[in-house]
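Holo prediction. Input below; ligand is adenosine-5'-triphosphate.
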Amino acid sequence: MIDVRDLVYEYPTVRALKGISLHVEPQTITALVGPNGAGKTTLLRCLAALEDPFSGSVIVGGFDTRSDPRAIHALLGYLPDFYGLYDGLSVRRVLTYTARSRGIAPALTAAAVEKAVLRVGLTDRIDVKAGDLSRGLRQRLAIGQAIVHEPKVLLLDEPAAGLDPQARRDLSVLMVALKDAGMTLVVSSHILAELEDYCSEMIIIEDGMIVGGKPIKVKDVARPRYILEIATARSDLRDFLAARAGIDVIEADEYHALITHSRSAASRARLIRDLLAAGFEVSGFGESTRALEDAYFSQVGQGR
Ligand code: ATP
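Structure of the complex:
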């Protein structure tokens, strides 16, 4: 769905992207992470056909950003890192305006607006003016603007900024639902611990380049990683886990194991019961949220 080859982008005094190549498959969610000033926003703006590359090429949905920017704008939704809203208009009117300007027919506009409002959780505020919304609610409205026309490709620059924990979780669920509905998402974020909830690939950008040259595979969303700890050493921990159906052992020693396992609470409960029955003194079992952060910090800033 997205193909970037040797992309170089320069501001008048800074070379912000120094030869980026990447490929994004349709119906996936790719996270873009990296330190401040790494080039994430610049890359998203190039993908959105808002900037022309200095050299290299950017193809989105089969169109080249240089020769067909309008075709790309039509198939794309984009949430910038900074944006303005029409503060004097209600949520309904802001989204109606966006829907109409995005080419949705008048007869279909009300339904499109209501769907977007439901998706971003603003139904009970549909008649509130944008200027009277809190920061997080404005963020939700801006996300609503980006999806009201059901784009094929959705680019979100820091969508979780300013959202409370519940709204961030809702956003993760929404992004997965949009992917399942057929969209391809690229999302920049600084909140590494939550990436595993929604994305399948992580691209680390540092100083205008992709660290390691390619995306890092994030785990299967339906099968999180869990850490198991036992209080007394057992050399057969790995073998016991590996013999069970539905478990992949990523690493294990006599006290710990990092495994992938289904999200199902009932099957996790079954695993713990069977471990106890087999004499393993289970002292800890929980979802591992640090794996991505560890991968990030092991790659970023090594040159400093
Ligand atoms: P952040 O996480 O802080 O949002 P980012 O990864 O999105 O950072 P960019 O905003 O893409 O980074 O900036 C990449 C580089 O380009 C930085 O060195 C930045 O200072 C520079 N830059 C960004 N916008 C401009 C501009 N309009 N003019 C000149 N330089 C710019």
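The pocket of adenosine-5'-triphosphate is lined by residues 11, 14, 16, 34, 36-42, 81 (CB under 6 Å). That is the main takeaway for now.
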